[in-house]
């Protein structure tokens, strides 16, 4: 999905490293499936940005053949990615730079849009990709206005990206559905392995890939929980095994003080499982304070209970969704900024929607369930 952000953003390919684990080879010029890595990245970046810079500390003449400005680090001696960040921010003629590494040849087609939307939505200083398990710090959208901050950080002798990010408000953007982006080439063995796989082949958890996942997204007060309970009843009546995932924003406490399981947790157990003939419960303590990604939760699912996974919350995750909209709530529609919305369930049947979106009557959950069943037939589990 493209936004109107083109004239704001310069794409930057970081190709200034030593390539020490590749025997000193320039990784941007490594050949993958008949083409240098830099060419794969240029093709992926061009539709998403207004300008492109190539950050290279050697072989500049080779890179200049691609008809984009080639820049080098101000700091000598291969000082790491942040030195490339700083050089790009100095030379860019746009307010933002989109940083990508030269050794990961795949970029999601909506990378710019996702990062930009998260930056605006969270009023953050910068936006960084997250693969569902960890931050991917060299896939980032950064305003050039942060250059003085970065220069001061480098002048102090610091080089670690995470430490500089920690000085700013960071929007972590979920790319768990496009983990191919983070497959990189650091060693000859990795180059050989990637040579045997189509560049754009998805890399996913197979269990997750086999799940049929559908989200309900809405502003608070629109009635998505009420709709969800009705849908569960209708879909169960149709013979489906239903799993529901809900994102909570508050302290979760399902246990009872004084019970054995509560005491085990109080004693320091990281995970407690309670099993009986009728029900199994898992309680796990989160080791980080970051908000969970949907990918973090999907790995707990028992696929035998999941003909369909309904998700309430996680509205910024890229999964198929039905938007629940009540004009009386006084909030704007979500679909214009979310290309994963399939349909809008609303109590305003005069609402004008694009042709690619289905309009569903929010007061007729049986027809919404029928829409979901038809969608499942078109997207069967593998």
TrEMBL record:
| InterPro entries for this protein | MobA-like_NTP_Trfase, MobB_dom, Molybde_CF_guanTrfase, Nucleotide-diphossugar_trans, P-loop_NTPase
Q: Where does Mg(2+) bind?
A: 103
An annotated GO cellular component: cytoplasm
Record-linked CDD domains: MobA, MobB
Binding locations of GTP: 14-16, 27, 73, 103
Gene3D superfamilies found in the cross-reference section: P-loop containing nucleotide triphosphate hydrolases, Spore Coat Polysaccharide Biosynthesis Protein SpsA, Chain A
Residue ranges of domain Molybdopterin-guanine dinucleotide biosynthesis protein B (MobB) in the record: 213-347
**Reactions catalysed, as given in the entry:** Mo-molybdopterin + GTP + H(+) = Mo-molybdopterin guanine dinucleotide + diphosphate
Per its UniProt entry, what is the enzyme's top EC class, as one word?
Answer: transferase
State whether it acts alone or in a complex, and with which partners, per the record: Monomer.
What's the protein name? Molybdenum cofactor guanylyltransferase
Organism, scientific name: Thiothrix lacustris
């Amino acid at each position: 999905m493209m936004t109107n952000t083109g004239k704001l953003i310069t794409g930057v390919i970081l190709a200034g490293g030593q390539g020490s684990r590749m025997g000193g080879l320039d990784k941007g010029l490594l050949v993958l499936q008949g083409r240098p890595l830099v060419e794969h990245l240029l093709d992926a970046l061009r539709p998403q940005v207004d300008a492109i810079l190539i950050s290279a500390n050697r072989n500049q003449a080779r890179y200049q053949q691609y008809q984009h400005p080639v820049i080098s680090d101000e700091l000598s001696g291969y000082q790491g990615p942040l030195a490339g960040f700083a050089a790009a921010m100095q030379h860019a003629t746009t307010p933002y730079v989109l940083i990508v590494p030269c050794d990961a040849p795949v970029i999601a087609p909506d990378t710019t849009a996702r990062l930009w939307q998260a930056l605006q939505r969270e009023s953050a200083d910068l936006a960084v990709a997250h693969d569902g398990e960890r931050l991917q710090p060299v896939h980032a959208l950064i305003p050039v206005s942060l250059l003085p901050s970065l220069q001061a950080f480098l002048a102090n002798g610091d080089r670690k990206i995470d430490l500089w990010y920690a000085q700013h408000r960071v929007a972590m953007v979920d790319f768990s559905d496009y983990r191919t982006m983070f497959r990189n080439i650091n060693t000859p063995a990795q180059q050989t392995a990637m040579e045997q796989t189509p560049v754009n082949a998805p890399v996913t958890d197979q269990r997750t890939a086999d799940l049929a996942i559908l989200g309900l997204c809405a502003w608070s007060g629109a009635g998505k929980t009420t709709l969800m309970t009705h849908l569960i009843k209708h879909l169960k009546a149709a013979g489906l095994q239903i799993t529901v995932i809900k994102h909570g924003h508050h302290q979760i406490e399902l246990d009872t003080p004084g019970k054995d399981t509560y005491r085990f947790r109080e004693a320091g157990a990281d995970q407690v499982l309670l099993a009986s003939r009728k029900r199994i419960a898992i309680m796990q303590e989160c080791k980080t304070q970051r908000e969970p990604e949907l990918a973090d939760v999907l790995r707990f699912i028992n696929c035998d209970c999941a003909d369909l996974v309904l998700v309430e919350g996680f509205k910024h995750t890229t999964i198929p969704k039905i938007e629940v909209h009540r004009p009386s709530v006084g909030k704007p529609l979500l679909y214009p900024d979310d290309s994963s919305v399939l349909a809008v369930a609303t109590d305003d049947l005069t609402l004008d929607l694009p042709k690619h979106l289905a309009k569903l009557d929010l007061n007729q959950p049986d027809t919404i369930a029928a829409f979901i069943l038809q969608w499942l037939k078109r997207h069967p589990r593998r």
